[in-house]
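Technical appendix A lists one of the benchmark inputs used to test multi-chain prediction within the project. The record comprises two sequence entries:
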Amino acid sequence: MLVSERKPWDEILSYLKSHQKIFLIACGGCSEACKTGGTNGLQEMENKLKETGKEITGSFVVDFACNKVLIGLKLKRYLLSLEKSEAILVSSCGIGVQAVASMIDLPVYPADNTIYMGGFSGVWTGEERCLQCGDCKLYLTGGICPYANCPKNLINGGCGGSDKGKCEVDPEKDCVWVLIYNRLKEIGKVDNLRKINAPRNFNLMQPPAKRKKTIFWALETEEEQEELVGGEK
Amino acid sequence: MKLTELFAKGKFVVTSEIGPPKGVNIQPVLEEAEMLKGKVDAINVTDLQSSVMRLGSLAVCRLLKERDLEPVFQITCRDRNRLALQSDLLSAYVLGIENILCLTGDHNVLGDHPDSKPVFDLDSVNLLKAARDLMEGKDMAGNKLDGTPDFCLGAVVNPGADPLEPQIIKMENKVEAGAEFFQTQAVYDVKKFEQFIRATEHLKVPILAGIVLLKSAGMARFMNANVAGVFVPDELINIMAKASKEERPRKSVEIAVSLIKELKNMCQGVHIMPLGWDKYVPQILEKAELI
């Protein structure tokens, strides 16, 4: 079961500071079960942003934002509203955010932190696109995850081994920091690289107890089944 | 002595480099270092260079210090988490080591223990910040230290990086994090280096141009194919290709001398990486009129 949780709203709003017109996307797959995405999640995002005076140019829920083809088809239907948008806020796991970012030339920001994908990660079963670090940095990196794609998990730019866009560990592999740089150039956000990121907090990878109470997780234990089915708290 | 004191005096700073042995036979590397005594301002000691398991940098730095040679302690993020890195920095200070070069480090798969766990808990930027925090009397978690170390912090940059812009942005971040001087990857292309110097002038930070002694045409071709951001022009490759085996050291010295002479007015020093040819370093420095 994939587990994500909403980032603190102060943090989300800080990414969106320079943008007024926002398009919203929420995943109707795992994120809906975590109560971050789905129609409810989308509604929450819309309310929060409107409260702070942002304009919502359009929105949709998509079943499995990790599916690039599906995302591409959906985005196509909203081209007019997207043309008016300055940024996209996505409620999904890190894979979904990256799928959206790879399909459109707009800054794409994550609304959630991905904590755990054990056993089931939507329709994308690999971990190479999201390490479930619990502190999603896709807002700074043009929607491309450096943790999952850099063999050194670097967070402050590429290393000295990066050569003509290729990785020192595997010359067949693109250096993710060059991909990030190219993407940031495309969306006019190269200055994002000037922010020094603090080292990663490894405790964030542990799902908090309250997160384990989501429906799918709870079904595993009889006790919690009763709590869900039998009694209202 | 801290390298920053020399830059402050306006001295053109010369550093060189030694690599600890695989094992405990320390004599040859100490002899290499002795040859550089009085000729260079400081000697870098590499930290498991190329991810090959060896004797540690910290111990060799201390041995240099005991022989009145000024070490630059290279420390990488590959093998230590943030506790060990901070602890080793404190250890360095109590052993009398003041010059520190903070690097990310090569990846484990490039070395002789490719199955090992890569650590990379910090990166070069955060390592510089951690060292700076220690100098301000606190650790990375904000806890107060009992006794504060004082370092001269250095970092590395690759003037030949492609693309160059993110490399320069990272260099700026390193300065912000605490870097007080830079040593560069090997330079052979003077024009490109000049462009790099212009692009980083605003940082006002001393830069030591990297000089790697060319040992053969094969080595030059190997570097062109495999070492990020290093480009040896055909002209230099041809000189080495035409030289007989006996002539090679002399040609190599000539190339290094002419590079140093050309680079001298662009930067604040040179970092000579002899890769075992330490015995030629004194004559290079004499011919380049640096000693």
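Chain B has a mean pLDDT of 96. The longest strand of chain B covers residues 13-18. Comparable benchmark entries are summarised in Table A2.
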